[in-house]
Amino acid sequence: EVFRAASMESPDLTHLVEVKAGDTLPMLCHKIYKDSRYYLAVAEFNQLRSFRQLIPGQLLRFPPLV
């Protein structure tokens, strides 16, 4: 599994991001994790039907990495 549950003391708390026009999931993953390769795992975590069709205003969760 790519993600882990964060403890309350963990500095790696889940990020909640509001999608802005022009955002892509790989770009947001790069911004948060410094690695765009997690986009499929984030899409699955957020139960996205298509990672290519992000909607401005949509909230996405980026959980801590394992």
Structure description:
It is a single chain. The chain has 2 helices and 2 strands. It is α+β, with helices and mostly antiparallel strands. The radius of gyration is 12 Å and the shape is globular. The N and C termini lie close together (7 Å). Helix content is 24%, strand content 12%.
Overview features:
single chain, alpha+beta, globular
Number of strands: 2
Residues in β-strands, percent: 5-15%
Number of separate helices: 2
Mean pLDDT: 85
Low-pLDDT stretches: 7-11
General form: globular
Largest sheet, strands/sense/barrel:
2 strands, antiparallel
Helix content: 10-25%
The helix/strand series, from N terminus to C terminus, equals EHHE
Based on CA atoms alone, the radius of gyration comes out at 12 Å
State the strand order across the main sheet. Answer: 1-2
Alpha-beta content class: alpha+beta
How far apart are the termini? Answer: 7 Å
